[in-house]
Amino acid sequence: MAIENTERKNIVLHLLALASRLEGEGQYNLAKLARATADSFLRRAAYSLTIPSNKDELVADLEQTVDALSSFDVDENLLVALKRGAAAMAQGRLPLIRETPHPYVCRACGHLALGEPPEKCPMCGAWASTYQRFLPVYWLDAFEPLAALEKLRQTPLEVAALLQGLSEDAMNQPASDGGWAIRNIVSHLRDAQGVISFRVDLFLQNEHPILESKAVFAWATNENERPPLTREILETYKASRAEMLSKLDKIPLAYWWRTGEHEEFGAVTLRQQVSYFAAHEITHLPQIALLRRG
Ligand SMILES: [Zn+2]
Questions:
Q1: pTM of the full predicted structure?
Q2: How many angstroms is it from 14 CA to the middle of ligand 1?
Q3: Exposure of 171 by Cβ count < 10 A (0-12 exposed, 13-18 middle, 19+ buried)?
């Protein structure tokens, strides 16, 4: 098929259709290249679009997008979930799993189901295992247990190295856009460590713990009940991390697949929770490095 003059949009569609056919032939290495190219094209195009970053404008954009979606052939449950999520965001909170269930997309025909996949796809008859589940964030599956433990051991050392030689004043300097100072980031890492440490204990004590949703992000600028110096906050973070790691180093292998009920994310394993926090804190290292330079 001649694709030389096809527009970018059509190339993306063509690549995805081609990938499905290649998978049908067992040509998985070729299919992966086609899928990655399509994904790259879409992300590059999206990267250059301007979307508001202000919360109210984002909610308004989301509501308009839902309206636009309703003129397409889109599952009513999906529209309802999007509206519920937008309403939660407008109230200043995170939507819970019961309001915004995980979506599943049939890899064969694109049928979308919410909550769990049907036994048979109503559009093409594919089995439930054909559906792709969309998790809220890749951090949940970023690291296998041993790699996650290694990251959790390393990151506090990297944070300490980034803080080396900085005065308390320098660490209290807000970002040029008025955003977090280094002190807020270190507080945030310590807060997140407090949450994962608490959850690890729940997983070790219960086979199916209930995990409450925590707005950890909002605590970073709260100065109540904190040690006065950033380096002291760092020390409490490191001490809590070391204590948690000593527990995780000793647990039976099967404990990593214990499943908790997370208010925001639904069923999550200990493995996913630990991966999440290990991946999350790495994203703050470049932020500290940038503030250190600036
Ligand atoms: Zn299908």
A1: 0.87
A2: 18
A3: buried
